[in-house]
UniProtKB/TrEMBL annotation:
The active site is at R146, H240, R243, H266, Y275. Belongs to the 'phage' integrase family. XerD subfamily. Coiled coil: none annotated. One of its GO terms (cellular component) is cytoplasm. It comes from Blautia glucerasea. Its main location: cytoplasm. Keywords: Cell cycle, Cell division, Chromosome partition, Cytoplasm, DNA integration, DNA recombination, DNA-binding. One of its GO terms (biological process) is cell division. This is Tyrosine recombinase XerC. InterPro entries: CB (IPR044068), DNA_brk_join_enz (IPR011010), Integrase-like_cat_sf (IPR013762), Integrase_catalytic (IPR002104), Integrase_recombinase_N (IPR010998), Integrase_SAM-like_N (IPR004107), Recomb_XerD (IPR011932), Tyrosine_recombinase_XerC/XerD (IPR023009). The gene is xerD. It is found in: Cytoplasm.
Length: 294
């Protein structure tokens, strides 16, 4: 069964161009399912029935997993068994009728403009580390990119002369403008700090750790958490919080939703529309001033 999972992940990667995070999640979900099935005496995917899958999902629910986690497991299971069915590896698709539980869509955590300002003031620009950290935080907020995109940037992706950065997401790329504040901080980092960390001239990563190697997500998260505490921000802040804040602040200040969608790299505009609900007071104020039958 493990070889079928491995083949399925290869299929996702090579034919569906899925992200690395999606592939890891699907693989983890399916390996947990396989372990459960083996305990039930099932050694072949062709032996799996709908009742077996429903039993597994009921077990997840009983163990207290959130609806969002169960929904992702169902997505993994449905995709996997459909793949097997279409290739004639199983006679019937036991996952065809699985239904995902309703997931309450949580509003993303957003920092106020004042909180973002406090956070971005924390790195010490008089030190090499401070210059690097400030450049990373300023760019993350200026461009609204995902932290994985930030850490994957190469020096050639940054154009300070024209003020933009090129983000890469699988086979796609998008050009995002950056403001003067971020551009000046990045210029200072490139001129004075990057060479302190990077001794290997063949290293193309824009941001590295203290050893001159590309920074990890965990390293960035630890750094962000530290500055959040120094800024007296006692909320559940993650690298994605600055991305959420970028989107909300852009829309609140009059940016059109299609442009924000493009900058965020959302394929579906409904993913961007969630940020429209974050400032209902301002929205009502605009409505009362503009609507002819207010």
């Amino acid at each position: 069964m493990e070889s079928l999972i491995s083949n399925f992940i290869d299929y996702l990667h090579n034919e569906k161009n899925t992200s690395g995070n999606t592939e890891l999640s699907y693989e983890r979900d399916l390996k947990k399912l396989t372990a459960y099935l083996k305990k039930q005496g099932i050694e072949s995917m062709d032996q799996v029935r709908e009742t077996d899958l429903k039993g597994y999902l009921a077990k997840l629910q009983k163990e207290g997993y959130e609806s969002s986690t169960i929904s992702r497991n169902i997505a993994s299971i449905r995709s996997f068994f459909l793949y097997l069915f279409k290739r004639g590896m199983i006679r019937e698709d036991p996952a065809e009728n699985l239904k995902a539980p309703k997931v309450e869509k949580k509003m993303p955590e957003i920092l106020t403009v004042e909180e973002v300002d406090r956070l971005l003031r924390q790195p010490n620009p008089e030190t090499y580390k401070g210059m690097r950290d400030k450049a990373m935080l300023e760019l993350l907020y200026a461009a609204g990119m995902r932290v994985s995109e930030l850490l994957a940037l190469k020096t050639e992706d940054l154009n300070l002369s024209f003020g933009y950065v090129i983000c890469h997401d699988q086979s796609r790329e998008r050009v995002i403008p950056i403001g003067n504040v971020s551009r000046d901080v990045l210029a200072a980092y490139m001129d004075h700090a990057r060479s302190y960390f990077v001794k290997d001239e063949t290293e193309k990563a824009l941001f590295t750790n203290c050893s001159g190697k590309p920074m990890s997500r965990q390293g960035f998260w630890k750094m962000l958490k530290g500055y959040a505490l120094e800024a007296d921000i006692h909320r559940d802040i993650t690298p994605h919080t600055l991305r959420h804040s970028f989107a909300a602040h852009m829309l609140q200040n009059g940016a059109d939703i299609k442009s924000v969608q493009e900058m965020l790299g959302h394929s579906d505009i409904s993913s961007t529309q969630v940020y429209l609900g974050l400032d209902s007071v301002k929205m009502r104020d605009v409505y009362m001033k503009a609507h002819p039958r207010r």
